[in-house]
Amino acid sequence: MKNNLRLLRNPFPDVAAVCDRRALPAISGFFGAHRAPLQEAKFPRALAVAITALATLMSFTGCSSKVDSNAQPSSVTVSNVTLTAEQRQKIQFYTVAPSKFHKTTETTGTVDFDNDQATSVLAPFGGPVSKLLVNPGDKVKVGDPLAEVDSPDFAAAISAYRKALATAQTLRRVADMDKDLIQHSGVAQREEEQAQTDAANAEADRDAALQTLVSLNLDPQVIKDLQAGRPVSRPGGRINSPIAGTVVEKLITPGELLTAGTTPCFTVADLSRVWVMTQIFGTDLASVSVGDHAEVVSGIATNKFSGTVDNISALVNPDTRAVLVRVVVENPGDFLKKQMYVRVRIQARQESNGLLVPVSAILRDDVNLPFVYAMQPDGSFARRHVSLGYRTGDQYDIPDGLQAGDQIVTDGGLFVQFMQNQ
To answer: Any idea what the Cα angle at residue 408 is, between residues 402 and 414, rounded to 5°?
Structure first.
């Protein structure tokens, strides 16, 4: 019976944890008033009465273990902050005013040769390489020899020129003789005309053979000896530099067999000026135009290089959705190397207008929205949510949320926020 009475006093021990505290005295009173009768009654009947009474009390006290999912959170209105004169002395203010600025786009890029001042030197003739005359890093001028090639093309070209030269000289003499004879009716008019035609054709073949020797970079003195009919030694072919610059690549080795017109031998580039290839995304593309000034930082020491935007691609990279922008950079001392990674800052020439505020004035609320503290007419400070636009240096452009003439807190905003949360 004692155990039964203990159960009757609290038949649902977990109910008290979820019920309103106001129901507990009523429940206790109910069981206290009916303790004696319950002791005399049978257990099942007493338990049924207790359960019925408890359910009735729970309905009146609004006991429930569930939370209304449709309940709306209460909106909390943040009140303005009023500071004492002593506290205001520790705060700095900034008066918002229209400002003019040049947008700066920061990105990364890679260094490449200026293709207007760099070339790949192809073998002008075939044959095995007999000797290399330069190494990577050597400075060369236009026409300087880079390598020697034992080429059979030279022998064939010299032989063809000698034949063409002799044929042209012979046919020219015949044509001149026929021209003299025609004046004395020694030959027919048709024969004289044919002789002039043959001489002209032979001279054309001679000039073509001479041009072949020139294209093979044959020594001019050897050509003069051939024209004079003097014997010449077997000449060696030389690969000469077509431009002035630096030998940046050597692609052949002694003994390698070259194919005329197809085998790349050297890369020569003028490194005094290079290209920096960078990618600009759509959000920044409107701020970049041809002719804008650019500053290139290599990240090595403190070297900075000045450049200019030279070209903006007409195509979008399908993989990155960015547009390729080329910056021409002066390279004193040949410091920038091909494939080097650099940082690029492009400053727009076009001037922009906006409301600039210091970065220190921007704070974040509980949901990470930016706001500032603006002074009110009564001297208090109120939160003003703002939209952050372009950032230039240590200032933000505010496209929405502030007006010219507003006074905002720039130094001490965290203190004002602390006072507001008290």
So the answer is: 120
Nearby residues of 139 by Cβ (< 8 Å), 6 or more positions away: 245, 246, 247
Residue 358 and residue 63: Cα distance in Å, rounded?
A: 54
In tens digits, the chain (422 residues) has pLDDT values of 444 444 434 444 443 333 344 444 444 444 344 444 434 334 445 444 444 544 444 444 443 333 333 333 334 456 888 888 888 888 899 999 998 888 888 899 999 999 999 999 999 888 899 999 999 999 999 989 999 888 887 788 888 988 999 999 899 888 888 777 777 666 677 787 888 898 899 999 999 998 888 877 777 888 888 888 888 776 667 888 999 999 999 999 999 999 988 999 999 999 999 999 999 988 788 889 999 999 999 877 678 899 999 999 999 999 989 999 999 999 988 889 999 999 999 988 888 888 999 999 999 998 999 999 999 998 899 999 999 988 888 889 999 999 999 999 999 889 888 888 87
Per residue in 86-116, is it b (16+ CB within 10 Å) or e — as a string? Answer: eebeebeebebeeeebebbbebebebbbbee
Output the CA torsion sign for 207, 210, 212, 217. negative
Rounded to whole angstroms, the Cα distance separating 419 from 239 reads 81
Nearest alpha-carbon partner for 233 in 167, 130, 131, 154: 154
- Whole-Å CA distances, 339 to 174, 259, 344: 64, 29, 14
* pTM for the full predicted model: 0.60
The answer to whether residues 409 and 391 touch, using CB atoms and an 8 Å cutoff, is no
Distance CA 93, CA 74 (A): 33
- Chain centre to alpha carbon of residue 152: 50
Residue 295's CB is within 10 A of a number of other CB atoms, namely 17
CA distance 101 to 391: 10
Burial of 336 (0-12, 13-18, 19+ CB in 10 A): buried
Choose among 216, 225, 245, 254: nearest CA to 144.
245
CA distance 72 to 63: 20
Token representation of residue 377: 């007419």
Q: Write the CB contacts of 232 (distance below 8 Å, at least 6 apart in sequence).
A: 158, 222, 225, 226
Q: Which of 109, 100, 19 is nearest to 59 (CA)?
A: 19
